[in-house]
Request: fold
Amino acid sequence: MIWTDEADRELKVADALQDEIQALMKAGAHIGHVKSKTHPAMRPFIFTTRNNIEIIDVLKTAEYLAKAETFLRSVAARGGMALWVGTKPSARQAVEGAAAATNMPHVTGRWIGGLLTNFRVISRQVAEMEDIEKRKANRDLEKYTKQERARIDDKYQSLLKVYGGLRLLRRLPDAVIIIDTVHDHIAVGEARRMKIPIVALVDTNTDPRPIQYPVPSNDDVRLAVQYMTHRMAEALKLGVEEATRAAATAKAEKDKAEAATAEEKTP
Reply:
């Protein structure tokens, strides 16, 4: 019976892996760049070359994605926060959706230099944006002339465009998720300087060595990016659920202890 249970478990694992491989290939995660653009450090993740296009080993993709998911889940489980970064047009929609689903900050416009390394200055810009929002809601701007209100609104729209996705970033993040590390290399540099772990897709033209949790994958195809951001978002959501359950358990135990103490003091 023990052997049968173990065999069944292994069969289920194999079936799940096969399903994942098919999903990865359907999304186009295995399609790399032309061979001439291959970064030498990516060679261990390349399965073969077809028509001069590098093909990523999806078994490695599944393996490294699982590591990234475990890390992200642990970050959220301890109450941590991840910053999503995807400033390429092909990544913006997926990144904004994942950020909304996980209630975490994101950057999909241009990366603001000093976002991580000069966080206090950046946070003041976010505070100014939110202050204008409050003044609008309270109708405090009605005392200004039409021209002055227009100038304030122009300022607000400019701030919103650049800092709108950062209103949830009240402190430095515990992890940074980057879709394309070549395109957003400044984000990579700032995260490394601040010793913030990076989770990132690494295409065949990418150097994976600076990334703590690299996931070998196409980072240009929308379906691939959507698949990866969805998987990572689900990992974060599971971590949040764990944190919520832990907090509820801790509160219940505290309430029980306080009730017992109160009962002991009752004459």
User: Anything to note?
Assistant: The chain is about 55% helix and 10% strand. The mean pLDDT is 92.
